[in-house]
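Hi C.,

You asked whether I'd gotten around to modeling the 229-residue construct. I have! Everything is below, sequence then structure, no commentary in between.
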Amino acid sequence: MRHRLTLSIFTAILLLTLPTAANTKRFVIQQQVTQIGQINTLSETSKSFADSGLVKIKATIEKHIRAAEGRERFIQSNNNTEGVMMAISMMDATASVIREGLNTGNKETIALTKELEKKAIISQEASLPELRAIYGNFLKEKLGEHNFIVALSGEKRDVLSFIGHDFADNKNIEMFQDNLSNMLHLMRFKQIKYRWSLQGDDYKCYTLDTPPDDKVVYHLKHGDNYRYY
């Protein structure tokens, strides 16, 4: 019974945070166009590099510079799980633009791209801890209804702890971890801890090999596979 209950909780969480792997990016990009008008779609961004001249390339890079500069304001005004996914997708799109810009072979464009990369790193270092806090609060609210305790720690809010009687069973821990793995990697958490009780020091810990916040990352796919710059 505990296994079924745990799975139902996380199925609900995943439905709320990631409607489907295929639709999330489409939804996020539609929101970006509507709310901040920064890019059309990731595929259209890539196509612009292939089919348009350097003028359009530079214009795209400049848009992403403005987006990076305004990302903290965007997160503050979209303080929810949808805002989290939009911000992550925007970072992903910026990484794609940086990758393409650095490969143009044009000195002026490369210099502008390096400026974007610096802005993106500054933005990520400020934004990712806040995004993890928003996601952690979401988990606290949803899992608190089912008598689980969720705690966020670490200087960069990158350690996530779950406490609940179900975690006396390692199979439940594995089920939790498997269901949340995609989001935990996207959010760049470093450690995930599971306790079955507030008393005692026993716990199971997962250490995640995620990139640091100051690393621009292009996600080849959602999960723990990354391309670094």
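If it helps when you're writing up: Residues 184 and 223 are 8 Å apart (CA to CA).

Thanks,
B.
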